[in-house]
């Protein structure tokens, strides 16, 4: 427990310093190559869980401190330890003992008494401390106050459910490659492996409890992919057919690229500004046994990579705040700032305007984000329609809300979709 507690605290401290949790953990894996898979999993669980419930944990810690704690490493250790004591089955005496040892290892021997006193006081006063912490919006919902206020304004009848669902553990959802099988057959294969699962539709399966991809039958042969159910709408909305010329304009890591190619034989071009992430698209397509033209490039500057031939379908899965997938990346809640959204909105508008000339007359463009903030979604789609008279908004069908906004539920993450057809010349 010592190593996992210490390294999870280190990851949290890195996030408090402004780094993403993904980058923080990557640095730990590089610095500690001897860690076993079980240890890595435990470190991830502690760091993700502590950030998911950070508002509540901070509310408890504030009550236990007699004065502000300015040492971020020690603060991170206490928050991770409080998470262990309240949300895990770890033996309390072990959590406290190891936390005291970690504080010494951090070079903060003077913090041993503080760590010991705070954690033992929590165990004695747990219910009263938790009740008091939940009296504040930040403590109750474990989101920043500005985020809570924005959700109340945007979704006055749903904001509490939105925030509660954003703190759930994300589901593990699979997409069955229809070229290699079907849902009933794959459910039977999972059952043979002792993996509980159920069908969500004709290609999506929700696994009852998270498992590694190495336990998924045929994963490395391309039989299935891991993809959120909400994200699986994108390829279907473009209603592709054999022979169409298709552009996936912000393709990495390639989940939607692969899904499009599973649905039809396409002349597909996948573009991404990050060459390293584009290699992940190549890896995913290789696993699925599929092919596409992969081009490094900025979707807002197609003149640098476009060959001048129009596309029948364009998927604009643009960069966004990723607020709809915050339960998969709980650091997002604490790293985002209210003024970030103006920058995202400007970037999204530039990409849409740059990509629209690439759509053939009669062709379609799908605008997609994994955000739940209207400034990136409905407002962006409306503004695009006003700028382009030849952009005809299309209905999304019965599987999606009329306004295109999928809010997080136990079954899927938060996404937004807006579909446009270009008027014939």
From TrEMBL:
GO terms, biological process: regulation of DNA-templated transcription
The SAM-dependent MTase RsmB/NOP-type domain, residue ranges: 162-423
Coarse class of the protein's main subcellular location: cytoplasm
Any one GO MF annotation of this record: rRNA methyltransferase activity
Assigned EC number: 2.1.1.176
Catalytic residues in the record: 370 (nucleophile)
UniProt-listed CDD domains: AdoMet_MTases
Cellular component, GO annotation: cytoplasm
Domain of life, source organism: Bacteria
Record-linked NCBIfam families: PRK10901.1, rsmB
Family named by the database record: Belongs to the class I-like SAM-binding methyltransferase superfamily. RsmB/NOP family.
Protein name as it appears in the record: 16S rRNA (cytosine(967)-C(5))-methyltransferase
Lineage of origin: Bacteria, Pseudomonadati, Pseudomonadota, Betaproteobacteria, Neisseriales
């Amino acid at each position: 427990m010592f190593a996992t507690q210490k390294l999870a605290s280190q990851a949290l401290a890195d996030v408090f310093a402004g780094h993403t949790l993904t980058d923080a953990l990557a640095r730990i894996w590089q610095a500690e190559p001897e860690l076993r898979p079980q240890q890595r999993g435990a470190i991830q669980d502690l760091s993700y869980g502590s950030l998911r419930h950070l508002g509540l944990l901070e509310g408890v810690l504030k009550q236990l401190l007699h004065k502000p704690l300015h040492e971020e490493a020690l603060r991170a250790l206490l928050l991770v330890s409080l998470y262990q004591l309240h949300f895990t089955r770890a033996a309390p005496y072990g959590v406290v003992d190891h936390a005291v040892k970690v504080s010494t290892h951090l070079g903060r021997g003077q913090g041993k008494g503080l760590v010991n006193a705070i954690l033992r006081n929590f165990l004695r006063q747990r219910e009263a401390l938790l009740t008091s912490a939940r009296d504040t919006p930040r403590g109750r919902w474990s989101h920043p106050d500005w985020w809570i206020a924005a959700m109340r304004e945007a979704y006055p009848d749903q904001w509490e459910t939105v925030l509660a669902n954003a703190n759930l553990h994300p589901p593990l959802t699979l997409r069955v490659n229809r070229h290699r099988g079907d849902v009933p057959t794959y459910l039977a294969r999972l059952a043979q492996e002792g993996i509980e699962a159920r069908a969500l539709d004709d290609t999506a399966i929700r696994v009852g409890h998270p498992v590694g991809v190495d336990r998924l039958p045929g994963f490395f042969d391309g039989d299935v992919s891991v993809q959120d159910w909400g994200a699986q709408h994108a390829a279907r909305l473009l209603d592709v057919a054999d022979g169409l010329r298709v552009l996936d304009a912000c393709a990495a890591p390639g989940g939607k690229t692969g899904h499009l190619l599973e649905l039809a034989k396409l002349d597909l071009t996948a573009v991404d500004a990050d060459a390293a992430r584009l290699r992940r698209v190549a890896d995913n397509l290789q696993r699925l046994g599929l092919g596409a033209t992969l081009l490094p490039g900025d979707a807002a500057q197609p003149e640098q990579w476009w060959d001048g031939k129009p596309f029948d379908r364009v998927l604009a899965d643009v960069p966004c705040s990723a607020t709809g997938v915050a339960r998969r990346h709980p650091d997002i809640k604490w790293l985002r700032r209210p003024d970030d959204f103006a920058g995202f909105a400007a970037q999204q508008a530039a990409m849409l305007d740059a990509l629209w000339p690439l759509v053939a007359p009669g062709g379609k463009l799908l605008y997609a984000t994994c955000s739940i903030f209207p400034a990136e979604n409905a407002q962006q789609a409306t503004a695009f329609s006003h700028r382009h008279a030849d952009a005809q908004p299309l209905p999304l069908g019965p599987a999606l809300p009329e306004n295109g906004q999928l809010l997080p539920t136990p079954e899927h993450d938060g996404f937004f979709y807006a579909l446009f057809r270009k008027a014939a010349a």
